[in-house]
Write a structure and sequence with these properties.
This protein has 11 helices and 10 strands. The chain has about 260 residues and is an alpha/beta fold.
């Protein structure tokens, strides 16, 4: 079905792998469209609880955009292609279920932008993360100038974007750009362990909490607090809330149904 990605489901966890290892998983137009198609499958499957994104091989998560396509990009294509990537990456960010980026190698340019659209990021010790676009005479275009400062602060984001120099995994951890750094052979087991943990949590509570956190970057604190209160109230009306409280009081394991 897909040429540039792999899409697999195991229980309540879906894994989307950018599968162009000979190109260090560089993203081209077709890859973006295939990611979008896979996201439709994710959204249509009510049994899914977590999405994992990673890259094939051990050298790169996504090492950037396909340079041959970039070479042909003019002003019109630049606007069209970046808006399309923004649209697809924002779709990942706004999924009702959480997503985990397993950064197994280089995450550069659109690769870092893809990882930043995920809910949580875990990285291999071999990973390098950066926005090197200025070295090609262009600017980031798929979310880098917007998501990076929200994650690591304006000063650090300015340095990464204006120099174009990447940071290694441990530095990315210190910045708050990734959540954990693991040895290469430990990365996917730890990602899957985290995914399994998230999959046990009540679906609606996860959805509402994720939405509230994402909205915290928008508007005023008063608007954010009001939205948080409404979402909390909404969660109080769910069957999962009743089950969660009952199981705690009865000292038993909760059986959440996503209702």
């Amino acid at each position: 079905m897909y040429k540039n990605i792999l899409y697999e489901i195991e229980g309540a966890i879906a894994t989307l792998t950018i599968n162009r290892p000979d190109k260090r998983n560089a993203v081209n137009y077709d890859t973006v469209e295939e990611i979008d198609q896979a996201l439709t499958q994710v959204e249509k499957n009510p049994e899914l609880r977590v999405l994992i994104l990673t890259g094939a091989g051990d050298k790169a998560f996504v090492a950037g955009a396909d340079i041959r396509e970039l070479d042909k990009r003019d002003t019109i294509l630049g606007r069209t292609e970046t808006r399309r990537r923004q649209e697809v990456y924002t779709r990942i960010e706004q999924l009702e279920i959480p997503s985990i980026a397993a950064i197994n190698g280089w995450a550069l340019g659109t690769g870092l932008e893809l990882a930043m659209a995920c809910t949580i990021r875990l990285a291999s010790t071999k990973a390098g993360l950066g926005q090197p676009e200025v070295k090609l005479g262009i600017t980031p275009g798929a979310g880098g100038t917007q998501r990076l400062p929200r994650l690591i602060g304006m000063g650090r984001a300015m340095e990464m974007i204006l120099t174009g120099d990447p940071v290694r995994a441990e530095q990315a951890l210190a910045m708050g750009l990734v959540n954990r750094v693991l040895e290469p052979d430990k990365l996917m087991p730890e990602v899957k362990k985290l995914a399994e943990t998230l999959a046990t949590r009540p679906k609606l509570a996860i959805q509402y909490a994720k939405e509230a956190v994402l909205r915290s970057a928008e508007g005023s604190i008063a608007e954010g607090l009001a939205h948080e209160s409404y979402l909390h109230a909404l969660s109080c009306g769910t069957m999962d809330k009743k089950e969660g409280v009952a199981s705690f009081l009865e000292k038993r394991e909760a059986k959440f149904t996503g209702r």
